Amino acid sequence: MSGGLRQSASAFGSRNFRLFWSGALVSSIGTWMQNITVPYVLYQLTHQGLWVGLAVVAQILPSVLLAPHSGSFADRLDRRRMALVAQCTQGLLALGLWAAWEGHLRSPGLLLALVGMGGVVWMGVQPAWQALVTDLVPKEDLLNAITLNSAQANAARAVGPAIGGIVLGAFGPSWAFLLNAISFGGPVVALALIRTSRAGHQAPEGRVLQQFREAIAYSRHQRGILVAFVLTAVSGLLGYPVFQLAPLFAKRVYHVGPSLYGALTGSFGFGAILGAVALGAASARHARSRMATVATVVFSGAMIGFGLDRAFVPGLVLLGLIGAASLSVVAMVNTSIQTQVPERLRGRVLGLWIVCYNLSYPAGALGMGALADRIGPGPTVTIAGVGMGLAALWLLLRPDLARTLDERGASAAPTGGADPQPSSGDGSKVGKSRT
Known about the structure:
By secondary structure, the protein is an all-alpha fold. The protein is 77% helix and 0% strand. It folds into two domains: 12-137 and 160-197, Growth Hormone, Chain: A (Up-down Bundle), CATH 1.20.1250; 214-406, Growth Hormone, Chain: A (Up-down Bundle), CATH 1.20.1250.20. It contains 17 helices and no strands.
């Protein structure tokens, strides 16, 4: 194995991370099979787009409502056990979808309730799932682990819908639900085999809302974390929704059928995989601030190009670049947060970051979708690309702010002590779906 390839997969040297990553990939593929099946059956049952939108809200809204508790639980409880219980519960809920469909209990309300309960469980454990990665790898492999974790989520996004479409067309929705339920066996087995130690961990004191306010107060005074939150919000509002507009590009711009539409959406996921390899190879040589700035510039340029493009093959390449850039931005901000926040606040601050993403992304998707209906998908993405370019310009003109992404908190590693202020430094060699 070449040195560059070894560097891009260094986190796989940890047995715990290999188990975690493999189990997550299996489950993520199953989840994407369900993600394309649920909107399909809801629309077939109701012929109303509102129900499709409600399914999205049901899965995302819990993250906002549960944020104070989920972050606190991630800091207070055993993260591996939390994730294990959540995966078992989600598997049972997916099995419930299969049983309801097989039993001809095909009420839109029942399906939405089961999907919503799955969203509650997943969003409730998401900060613990994110923070668990820090317990699986050495600190020097943290960036690579986060990048690979994002890569598996994007690989599933590329493969899962394609498999789901075949299963849905050939065997019907019940098989898609059943295979998703079975897929949760992957992370359940992996988490059962993982052994972690959180020596020195100190559970937070006080009530849940008090603990959450402590995380907000801490984040407000850490410029690196604030910059990470801003980049997340901008990317969620302007960048990530581009993927949701792919069906409009396939139909209105490229005039292609379902098979080429599948290739278009798959290019986003495969681009993210290639981006993960490149990011892993570059992480030892470049600071996070530089990589985040370059990724944001590429993000903006690819979006503008995709919005202006009218030919399918260039569009395929440009959407792949968008996938690579989006993964890079997510990996950089996630790593910056993880390496700056003290262990005792890790779950709660990650909970805030997840809320930032889960508020901005749906808002951006709704706004860009509505604008695309009025002026077309191409001009909409072009305008969003210009907005993303302003964020890139901000990083270029304020390198002092960009460099805060390189800071590392003195207690970012598990220590259980008080949280000293983060020290300035390069931090470029500090390496963290399902994301």
